[in-house]
Design a protein that fits this description.
Length: 277
Amino acid sequence: MTTADRPSAATAITDFWNDHPKRALETFGRQMSMGREVIVGLVLAIVRGRFHWREFVRQGAFMANVSAIPTMIVAIPVGVVVSLQVSLVIKQVGAESFVGAAVGIGVVKQGAPLVTSIMIAGAVGSAIAADLGSRTIREEIDAMRTMGVDPLQRLVGPRLLAAMLISTLLCGFVVFVGFAATYGFFVYADGGTPGSFLQAFVDFASSNDLLLAFFKSALFGALTAIIAGYHGLHARGGPAGVANAVNAAVVQSALVLFGVNVVISQIYNAVVPSQLG
């Protein structure tokens, strides 16, 4: 290739913009539009009594089945690690009684939503993308549109509501398991006193922290359903296309959920700072 045949720097930058950032922004815009359409249609369907409750129950049971056990397996070591690391640091300054505060701040406010987001993005997001991607490849989605059935309201809407419900339930489950694991490790393995643990937890944790965790989890479920539904409905290229859709859904969901968690946590900490009592 001669010097004249080589692309200029401006051309290279333009090609990179068209291939990556521009395409990502276009995809994000289409996902936002699809999310708005699904949510509006979901509300109208519930108000008008046309919501597919059977599909909602079936999808909710499936999501709980694929995510409950992995969530418990992940939640236990998270609680133990938090208790172990915090107790090691706190013992050096003679403040063992504040280990319970780490549960209120670490597990309830951050650990539970983060574990839930990982499980939702990995288990639920992949299941939604694989199911809708397979239907798209088999041209079932096109057949539904031909018959006048909106796939967003028939398929994505029930999955979105089910994902929100299951995410919230999983978050509560993680809070309970994380609290029990941390309490058990601190009292029985580390030799701490139950009273100091519970008192520190009560002093630093509040009902607002739990409500924030539930809110974030429900939002995570909605975002995952929208992202996974979008990639599933836009799968192309046979079985390999379904695999690519699942991979894209899981990766994007995880990145988006982590980013949203940081933003919400910072806003909450600025508005409602942690305080004793």
